Amino acid sequence: MGKIAFVFPGQGSQVVGMGKDLFEQFEPAANLFKEADQKLNVNLSQLIFEGPKEELTLTHNTQPALLTTSMAIYEHFKQFHIEADYVAGHSLGEYSALVTAGVLSFEDAVYAVRKRGEYMQEAVPAGEGAMAAVLGLDRERLTAVTREVSNAGDSVQLANLNCPGQIVISGSTKGVELAGEKAKEAGAKRAIPLEVSGPFHSTLMKPAAEKFAAIMDELALTDAKIPVIANVTAESIRDQGEIKTKLVEQLYSSVLWEDSVRKMLDLGVDTFIEIGPGKVLSGLIKKIDRKAKVYAVNDIETSMKVAEELKGDM
What we know:
The protein is α/β, with parallel strands linked by helices. It is built from 14 helices and ten strands. The protein has helices at 20-25, 27-40, 44-50, 53-56, 59-78, 93-100, 106-123, 139-151, 173-185, 206-218, 240-250, 257-266, 280-288, 300-313; strands spanning 3-8, 86-89, 129-135, 156-163, 166-172, 190-193, 228-229, 236-237, 269-275, 293-297. It has a four-stranded parallel beta sheet, sandwiched between helices. Strand 9 (269-275), helix 13 and strand 10 form a beta-alpha-beta unit. Helix 2 (27-40) packs antiparallel against helix 5 (59-78). The N and C termini lie close together (7 Å).
């Protein structure tokens, strides 16, 4: 058997009711939800289990909610003693990866992503920023399109390089709209506006990054016990100082997800286990490499099933 990577999803994977089975049936997971409520001084777990959806979708709620749920799922999966050789997470998911790698305590991470969400939300007034998924255009041509639009005065960048033929752009509302039109002229199949509350991973997030850097300085990070593939570089890192720098840069830089998956494949990973709500990353990994073995662990049932399958392979 080759190497194993644990990967953790980011914003967009949240759903009302996620993690409820773990809260009710697995005490170590229930304790994490309670710890998050206590640390943030809000009833986050009630919002996760009961909604309303509009409230859960606000960035400053989504981020701690997803981190907490992903770590609760991991807490259950951990008992089967399947070890990861590498960890990675998509945008916000990078924090789940860092908790798993022992870089950040869960308590510090949940505090950090709450602040991250607040600052991201404050950075650009509602309605002034946007994101869109561009389908069917390669990164070189799309980079040329976004550069042309930005140079003409409407800021827009490549935000998430997810898989071949699927790239998310981010920037000012007008910039994203214009780039979407020009991308279609350049041969893109579609440009789909995303329901998000801000232009994440664009240069418009630099004010948020400056504030967030001060939060990172408050926290105690340690070197990673498992190598982490960083979003910003798609390279393996362990050094806590470098990780801290990359987390701040990540707010306004592209998420190199396709490159990160390819890096893990080059490093000998043949089995990817997505830990967290949904199966978004599993789908992207399959589009990057059809031969990779991909599993999604998102509740007690799948946690047990995947562990059983993997133990059978070992």
